[in-house]
Amino acid sequence: MTTQTVMNPPAKASAFLFPGDEQFWFETVRMFGADEYGGGSFGEVMAVSARITAGDYDSWYDAWNAMADRIASEGDRQFANGRRISARDSYLRACNYYRSSEFFLHGNPQDPRVNRAWERSVACYRSAAALHDPGIKPVDIPYEGTTLPGYFHYAGEGVRPLLILHSGFDGSAEELHWSGARAAVERGYHVLCFDGPGQCGPLHNEGLVFRHDWENVVTPVVDFALTLPGIDPSRIALRGESLGGYLAPRAAAFEHRIAAVIANDGLYDYGAPHVSRMPEAGRHALLSALRDGPVPQVDRAMEVAMAASPVSRWAITHGMWCFGAATPSEYIGKTLDYTLAGGIAEQIRCPTLVCDAEGDLFFKGQPQQLYDHLTCQKTLMTFTNEEGAGAHCEVGAGRLANARIFDWLDETLGR
């Protein structure tokens, strides 16, 4: 979900948990928010947080992994005793706790803790998915000689609209359960969640990294979706979270079978914040150099920024892995292609909802930019700090945000 540019100003951390470490605080709010759809428990999040030292990645892993192991074992006992609902709920929380545990370890993707936690997270989610009624079906979507992992959330009999849902910089298809999928099912939508290249499943399993031309990911997903039961081909919506606020609009600009697109939060130009902080003198030459490969002076500057900022430390190390970059400057160079400028946003034909969180730490101003460039039917939806929904992607306020987002989608699709 989260994505951050190293040159953004520091975020405001909570004075309550992890003072001074805005990244640990944000990820904890993310865990609190998962509670709304069963992906966490407030008391468990508080208990884990009490055992974590701010900025200490090992303590983060140890605390979340220990809780995940305990809850997963409890789920196993519940299932063995025929307590299906209890087991379902335990497996769902354990899935999220395992996912969170390895979140900060991506500076060394070969760390065995990363793969173990990832595999356990997926296994727990699949156990939970099978215990839903109707069951949530794992799917493999054909894609360029391999497959993309995902889940089909079946909403019931009859022909229904479909929501295709994907995350962004660091989210997973499993996490989408509480980040939009079940909210859509409650409202009668079939949902197809998936991980594309650069996202958790393909990145962990095959080392597939991000690509900026996301239409080449979404088109095979739409092809696959049309083989699923009960899909209305005239009412297929696409929603992208976080970096998905660029990826989904990019896909919709070229894949015109999409009937509506939701960018949560909107993102017009992923590389722009890096560029805007570069000195104007020599900027053009520096950008050309970044497109050609690593730039040592930028790498040195990034090392200083990473030492000073918890957000930069995590974002750059994760970005290098998921973008397939060997150095910080190579990662920044790759982000420059992730833009809807040059008339791409203007090619979107379908109605588009651009979400804008007032206190967004990562994409400030970007939703408005995207909205201003759209020439299709468009809506800018702002979520405020006063209503508790001002964080990036409205984490911590999922029920409120989904109510507004899906009310818009119902009206847009004529439901």
UniProtKB/TrEMBL annotation:
Coiled-coil spans in chain: none
SUPFAM superfamilies documented for this protein: alpha/beta-Hydrolases
Protein name, as recorded: Cephalosporin-C deacetylase-like acetyl esterase
Organism: Paraburkholderia eburnea
